[in-house]
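Instructor's aside before we start: the two examples that follow are unrelated to each other. I chose them only because their records fit on one page, so don't look for a connection. First example below.
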Amino acid sequence: MPRIAGVDIPKDKPIWVALQYIYGIGKASSQQILADAGVEPTIRAKDLNDEQVGGIQTVITQSYKVEGDLRREVQSDIKRLIEISCTRGLRHRMNLPVHGQRTRTNARTKKGARKTVAGRGQRRGVAKK
């Protein structure tokens, strides 16, 4: 199991897929890394030699911010938004969707389990006062 950028990547997957297990590397950047390193994208991770692993590692460290550094940067960006009390920061603080999604329905992942409120809704056949 090769270790690249501090992450054990799966050995039985093609290397272009296995690189996506590293935080901050997606499909396009994975393929770009392999092109820069001169590695065939369809080769399995277990079939890489040390020279190829080293080439991939150097391309990632020189050109990309991944794993801990990227996580730290994202968290500091969110913290800055919260501190300046902009709309996005307030949405992060209240644990609500940030990018304009509706919350009347859906958004259960962010809002958590439903909370029942007394007096909410109508019973059938009963008119409102």
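Example two begins here.
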Amino acid sequence: MNKEELKKLEVYLSKVFKRTNLEVRGRPRKDDSAEVYIADEFIGVIYRDDEDGELSWNFQMAILEIDLEP
């Protein structure tokens, strides 16, 4: 993903999650995905899908059981 695409995704996800400290960072040696961070904490990976001429992105976030404890 290029810098312009990363910025567009960052703006969109910042609006969706209502966060000003969200950042989308390119991955070393990978051009089909990026990492998503909130306040320097890794929260997930966003994958670029350009299949049959239709472009979309898929966000994957793992939630550990320990994260759900009060």
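Residues 3-17 form the longest helix (15 residues).
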